[in-house]
Amino acid sequence: MHMMERLRKLGERTWILPGSPNTTIVESDEGFIVIDPGIGGNRDRIIENSIKELQGEISAIVLTHGHTDHLAVAQELIKGSKKRIFAHRLCVGLIESLELRFNVVYGGVVGKRFASMPSVILKVTDFIEWNEEIYPGIRAIDLHGHTPGHTGFAIEDDEILVAADSILGEKVLRRFGIPFASDLRSWINSLEKLREYVEDGYKVVPGHGPIAEKKRAIAMIEKNIFTVKKVYDYVYDIISKKGPIDLERLAVLATKELSEAQLSPRQIYLNRTALASVIGWLQEERKIEAIVNDERVMFKAHD
Ligand SMILES: [Zn+2]
Ligand SMILES: [Zn+2]
């Protein structure tokens, strides 16, 4: 087993299987629940071996949101037995339909090769409501923004919050520069909520990056908020100075300026989605407006 993939005990009833994304395993009264099984070759086998190590059985898969990298191996894990699959109502569509997933991620249906991820779809059996306990002591927390139904899970007796993609590790944040979110404004609100949990003593398990608590977790939250504000300022600044400008060009310029990621059509589409939410945010604040100019929809500062 690879070092990165060794099961790590984090609380009385909580284990982490590090990876990208991290997988959290929690003991419940019905068996072990697997939060975000993840993606990749033998991830399902690693999870199954870990559960064997704990001398138990998987009773449910819990998904924080409907992105492929968090759910891809779930299909293998549920094979041959009835297991529950939990997700928030607003992410069920993304999990059950590639059309909806592609729309939320890329702003429209794209080719499977363009998306370059396995086309796994699953059937959700249990719809989550925010603030409810999905099992005794495991509460669903509204941490949306990354996707409309993105949900965190508080394992209350262990004081662990599975924050998934409501927060990014610093390496990931630096590399991408523009955090992926269907709504960056809501994403900030979720980061503020995370801060309250950290102040109450919770450890934070991000989707991609190291587990953090106390000062380190607060610093991580602040880095994330700072990064979104930087994106917001960049968009407003470029529209004010270079506008009218269209979203496509803005996405290319912002990717060059803010991100270390490769300038690929796929990456630009991902950034375009997050940037579109900043455009919407600026429109709500009446700082910018849309016009048709030069055969394109363009944005300019409000008169
Ligand atoms: Zn995600
Ligand atoms: Zn993720």
Could you list some keywords that capture this structure?
Metallo-beta-lactamase, Chain A; alpha/beta; Arc Repressor Mutant, subunit A; 11 helices; five-stranded mixed beta sheet; binds zinc ion; 41% helix; 303 residues
Give structural notes:
The chain has 303 residues and is an alpha/beta fold. It folds into two domains: 3-166, Metallo-beta-lactamase, Chain A (4-Layer Sandwich); 229-301, Arc Repressor Mutant, subunit A, CATH 1.10.10. It is 41% helix and 21% strand. A seven-stranded mixed sheet has the order 1-2-3-4-5-6-7. Strands 8-9-10-11-12 form a five-stranded mixed sheet, covered by helices on one side. Strands 13-14 form a two-stranded antiparallel ribbon. α10 (247-258) packs across α11. The model has no long low-confidence stretch (mean pLDDT 95). Bound molecules: zinc ion (2 copies). One zinc ion is lined by residues 21, 67, 69-70, 165, 207-208.
Average pLDDT over all residues: 95
Net shape: globular
How would a textbook summarize the main sheet? 7 strands, mixed
End-to-end separation: 61 Å
Strand order of the largest sheet: 1-2-3-4-5-6-7
Strand-residue proportion: 15-25%
The total strand number stands at: 14
In total, the number of domains comes to 2
Structural class: alpha/beta
What name goes with the CATH superfamily of the largest domain? Ribonuclease Z/Hydroxyacylglutathione hydrolase-like
Q: C-alpha Rg, in Å?
A: 20 Å
Write the H/E string, N to C: EEEEHEHHEHHHEEEEEHHEHHHEE
Query: Helical element count?
Result: 11
